[in-house]
Amino acid sequence: MQEFPKGFLWGGATAANQLEGAYDVDGKGLSIADALPGGPERFNIVDQPDFDWKIDPDKYTYPNHEGIDFYHHFKEDIALFAEMGFKCYRFSIAWSRIFPNGDDAEPNEKGLQFYDQVIDECLKYHIEPVITISHYELPLNLVTTYGGWKNRQLIGFFENYAKVVLTRYASRVKYWMTFNEINSALHFPVMSQGLVSSNGGNVMQNRYQAWHNQFVAGAKAVAIAHELRSDLQIGCMLLYATTYAYDANPVNQLAALKENQAMNHFCGDVQVRGKYPLYTESLMNHYGFSFKDLTVTADDLAVLAANPVDYIGFSYYMSTAVNVTDKSLGTANGNLVGGVKNPFLESSDWGWQIDPTGLRIALNELANRYNKPVFVVENGLGAKDVVAADGSIHDDYRINYLREHIEAIRGAISDGVPVMGYTPWGCIDLVSASTGQMSKRYGFIYVDLDDEGHGTGKRSKKDSFTWYQHVIETNGDTK
Question: What does the record give as the active site (predicted)?
Answer without folding.
Answer: 378 (nucleophile)
